[in-house]
Every structure is written in structure tokens, then in C-alpha cells.
Amino acid sequence: MAVSEHSDELDGQPLVWRAAPAAGAPPLYVHDVPTSGAAWAPFLARTGGLAPDLPGFGRSGKGAHRDYSIDGIAAFVARFLDHVGVDRVQLVVHGWGAAALPFAIRHPERVQRLVVVNALPLLPGYRWHRLARAWRTPVVGELAMGATSRWALRRLLRPAFAGPVPEALVDDIWRHFDQGTQRATLRLHRAAPEARLAAAGAGLARVTAPALIAWGARDPFFPARFGDAYAAALGDGRVERLPDAGHWPWHDRPDLVDRIADFLSDR
Q1: How far is the C-alpha of 10 from the C-alpha of 78, rounded, in Å?
Q2: Which residues partner with 211 through β-bridges?
Q3: Helices (H), ranges, the chain
Q4: Which helix (H) or strand (E) element contains residue 4?
Q5: What is the pTM of this model?
Q6: What is the tens place of the pLDDT at every residue in 59-107?
Q7: Residue 91: strand pairing partners
Q8: What pLDDT shows up at residue 267?
């Protein structure tokens, strides 16, 4: 399936997204931080749908005035869908893409199906991982960002994969890892104390769409128990546990792309 790139302006800032034809409600893929919508390329080619670069990431606008927070991402999702004229979606989130879940909580009628992949836990009991704690600390976070080279980035990503680190993913992150993306990453983490994460997901039971939770068990950032916790909070969630996969589980287990595609097509 051919995937096309689109660019426009939203909220006075550049907006970039990828799209491919989809039958019915299109999948909306919301990426992790500091990746971009390009991370979803194998899914778009299989299922069609939409994959925007979130504000502050990829080639979308990175203005200092933007709202880099969970609420800011959820509001962006609503404005983006209005911008492209899409009412109902199949929502797929990974990592920080979980910040789109408050959109689903507020507008459950707009979500036909939900897929949660190694997502930031908007749940009680989560504690930020070591790197995030550094980013959340003023001055320390800025120094850590400034000291990041491509070599250091690749080394930081190494524990997130059960197999080889995908060089294409490293290249995509590094290509867009400018001052704007570094600032957005720091602000997102600093706007999200652990109590705020749990509060943001407090209404997950309102999302009644069928849900698939896919979790690579070798994720050094988000422990596998939160996959089960998401299923319990949603009330209608099936968990796919991947013991031989990490934070980006479809890189370790390419068959996950087909499994998610099958779930989305089971209407």
C-alpha cells in the first residue's frame, strides 16, 4: 500500500503527517518520544491510516510557546482529526503516544478500536525510569540533552531491544533531534509527575471500544505488568505478551504488525 506524506499548517505551526488509504474508520497512529510518525511506516503500509508528527517532533512545528504536556497532545489529536476531516478512528498508541488516551476518554464515541503498545502508564503505581528522572531535573536534563551524540543515543536505545538496534530508527531520531525536539522532550517529562500520569488515565473505563494491549516484556522503561493494568482499567482489553521483545516490539517481532492489522480489520 502506497504511503504519502503531507504538510500543512495547524495552530500557526508546520504540520507533517503520513497517510495511506483505509477502509472505514482509519487507524490513527500516535508515536513515542523522541521518534516521529515515520516509526509507523510498516503499519501504514499494511493497514492504511494516518500518522502525524506530534508537535515538537519530526518535521512538525517546534515553537517554544506550544503546550508540551499530556493535555496538549490530547488536544492536538482532536484538532488534527478536525483538520483532516476524520470523525472516527481506530486509535493506536505507543510510548508517549499514550497522551492521546485522554482524547479517547473525552470522546469515546470517536474511537472504534484501540491498540496500546508498550505505552506510558497513565496508571497508578508507575515510577519514572532513570533517564526520565534526569530529564525531569532542571539543568541536569539540559546537560544530558546537550551531551547526546548519535553514538550515545544508540547506546541509550540498546537495552530497549531484544535484538539488534534498528539503525533506521536511530537515524530517524537523530535526524530530527534538534533543540526544538530536545526542549519538547524535557517539557513533556517535566509536565508529567507520576500523580499526573495516574490522573490522566483515571477515566479509561469510559473507553468501551475493543482493545488490544501488546507489550514487549523486555522494555526497560515501562514494565510488562502495566500491560495487564491497562487491560484491567479498560475493562475490555486483550493482552498480547511478547517475552522476546522490547520497547519497540514490532522491531523484535515483525509478526506483531500483522497481528495488530488483523485486530484492526476484525470489524
Answers
A1: 12
A2: 114, 237
A3: 41-47, 70-84, 101-106, 130-135, 140-146, 150-157, 167-175, 179-190, 194-200, 225-234, 249-252, 255-265
A4: strand 4-10
A5: 0.97
A6: 999 999 999 999 999 999 999 999 999 999 999 999 999 999 999 999 9
A7: 28, 114
A8: 56
